Amino acid sequence: MVIQWFPGHMAKATREVKEKLKLVDIVFELVDARCPLSSHNMYLDEVVKDKKKIIIFNKIDLCDRAETAKWKNYFENKGYTVVYTDAKNSNNLNKVIDKAKEELAEKIARQVAKGIKPRAIRSMVIGVPNVGKSTFINKLIKKNVANTANKPGVTKKQQLLDTPGILMPKFDNQEIGKKLSLIGSIKDDITPLDDVSLYLIELLKENYLENLNNLYKINVNSDDENVFIMEKVAEKRFKKIGGDYDYDSTIKLLIQDFRTQKFGLITLDNYNDLLENEEQNEN
Ligand code: G4P
Fold first, then answer.
1. 88 lines ligand 1 (CB under 6 A)
2. What pLDDT is stored for residue 245 in this prediction?
3. Whose CA, among 117, 171, 229, 259, lies 20 to 30 Å from 8?
């Protein structure tokens, strides 16, 4: 079974985002800090054109900071402005507002020079499902209302379009799909969860072997086959059914354990993998 990437309603969503762009000054693309490249829409620039944009690495509280910092660098080297946030706990949202003001400073200065009173900054939030768009919008709106209420006379506040744009990356790369499934962007009922869980094992054994061994109290190594590792987990956690491993329960367990952070702070996109792929493509 292959994960379908760009279903019709996503094409419609892209169209809608394009239409709404006219109404905004700046676009916030939310990506998941655990896989900033895989959850990023590589056609963002094409969709957003020369509208100002900020890439927000949300769920920063869940990622492996050292690995995710490499991705921040990667995006900054491509000219993007990046801000880390934990929208759930309202962390760093002021930074988003500050950066938006910085990005729009020239435009605002031009308006002032023309004698136009600058209006509130209008922004649009886009990103894949479950990346935290609604949470981000709600928290940012509350923050602005609070800020405004605290400072009498200050009426300028940021306006957000309250319907976030869902944009799935258009991609034929199954690995990206599996990562998007792990972070809950793609519904489980259209996903081959057996493949996803084996892929999770692959990523964990390569980059977070200790976390994997510690959680299940097993002692596998990175040369072991993924299926062998799955069987070790099954052995530890479930009774055999008719002499066979309970693969179904093990598959669900692995995915659930990732989604509930049982492996600790994990970043699924590995920067060295990208470098290796680029090297291979060059040769
Ligand atoms: P969406 O609009 O992009 O689809 O995402 P939404 O805001 O619905 O958020 C999806 C889930 O991610 C929610 O959890 C939300 O609480 C969580 N979330 C959002 N931002 C962050 C963050 O920065 N860090 C963490 N750790 N979680 C975040 P949920 O379990 O679906 O709902 P709830 O139990 O929190 O209500």
1. yes
2. 97
3. 259
